Amino acid sequence: AYAWTTMIRGFVLSKSPEKAIEFFTRMKAQGVNPNNFSLLFMLKAFTMVLAYKEGRLIHGLILKLGLELDLFLHNALVHMYSLFGDMKSAHQVFGEMPMNTIATYNALISGCFSCGDVMGARKIFDEMIDRNVVTWNAMVSGYSKLGLLKEARFIFEEMPIRDVFSWSAMISGYSQSGRAIEALALFQKMQLSNIGPDSVTMVSVLSACATAGALDVGKWVHAYIDKNELRCDVFLGTSLVDMYAKCGCIDMALRVFREMPHKNVFTWNAMISGLSLHGHGEDALSLFAAMEKAHVIPNEVSFVGVLCACTHVGRVEEGCKHFNRMIQELNISPKIEHYGCMVDLLGRSGRLEEAREFIKSMPMAPN
RNA sequence: AGAACCUGAACUAA
């Protein structure tokens, strides 16, 4: 049981819940009984893949095996139920425990936010006697994600201690709401604090640089990453590619892109869109071909870049081909962006009747 | 003895 649990734990901690679930299934097939640890990780795994029903089954299994609900299992259950918006079950589990820790309340807060229940989150926060930095961070990030930046900032300013999570949550809040200047301003303030940015912080900062066209800050961040040896993973690499591309430094974007050992579809998309944005339509199209050759499956964003590139080089037929292939081969239902690209593509080449027909064929209301 | 709960992240048309 120990070996199985270690494997399952490893997969969950390395963010591969599918593999953890597979191992758990195999473990049970071998007749090994799950224990508190494996069940805890299964709750986590099903929470990660948003599998509510399976999560409930694990809860049932815990009860069936007569295992005692320790604090970890208890908190994981509260977290899972509240994340799925099943506040009734969450509160039921919550009420059954003689002792709820700060983490239990924190789990409820983040659950409320993920269901959009701002008032609920606020109420729990207000009623808490002991709060830790995670409590405050959960409030900052919860408000931020819902675009309630004033509220987030208020909490951020009020909190007694801030860690790198606090700063990152607040900066990404601004960045994701398109308020790049405020994100960068806060990043400047962060440098006056005693908390250093990590690679997650930098992803949001670079994203803000890309939006604002702040190439100088972006370059500074790049140098900082190298100098301080921040973990350069796919996220950070992609943000760098995107920042350079959006700021018009196609050469640097390509250089970072080529040097990245691991790329995913986001990385390719950032490079393809960047090329097409700056008039390198042909290069964008050949990069798209290279992506498929590398067995990276394009997603809906990839096709926005490709269709855009087709528009720039006036390749109407090729654009239509990609559009149809997206639907038929990849089972992606076109979004309003794709229809926008197609109308643009047809319109610019003077095929106005076809463009009109395209608009008529849209399943959603044209904007 | 040793496993561990809650908070931050990138690509998107006109």
How helix-rich are the residues, as a percent range? over 70%
Class based on secondary structure composition and strand pairing? mainly alpha
Task: Give the amount of beta strand, in percent.
Answer: under 5%
**How many runs of DSSP E, i.e. beta strands?**
0
Which properties best describe this structure?
mainly alpha; 367 residues; RNA-binding; 74% helix; single chain
Structure description:
The protein has 367 residues and is mainly α. 74% of the residues lie in helices and 0% in strands. It has 22 helices and no strands. The chain has helices at residues 2-13, 17-29, 36-48, 52-64, 71-83, 87-96, 102-114, 118-127, 133-145, 149-158, 164-176, 180-192, 199-212, 215-228, 234-246, 250-259, 265-277, 281-293, 300-313, 316-328, 336-348, 352-360. Helix 15 runs antiparallel to helix 16. It is globular and about 70 Å long.
Short description:
The chain has 367 residues and is an all-alpha fold. Helices cover 74% and strands 0% of the residues.
Which SSEs are present, and which pair or pack?
Layout: H1 2-13, H2 17-29, H3 36-48, H4 52-64, H5 71-83, H6 87-96, H7 102-114, H8 118-127, H9 133-145, H10 149-158, H11 164-176, H12 180-192, H13 199-212, H14 215-228, H15 234-246, H16 250-259, H17 265-277, H18 281-293, H19 300-313, H20 316-328, H21 336-348, H22 352-360
Helix pairs in contact: 1-2, 1-3, 2-3, 3-4, 3-5, 5-6, 5-7, 7-8, 7-9, 8-9, 9-10, 9-11, 10-11, 11-12, 11-13, 12-13, 13-14, 13-15, 15-16, 15-17, 16-17, 17-18, 17-19, 18-19, 19-20, 19-21, 20-21, 21-22
The protein binds one RNA strand of 14 nucleotides through helix 1, helix 3, helix 5, helix 7 and helix 9.
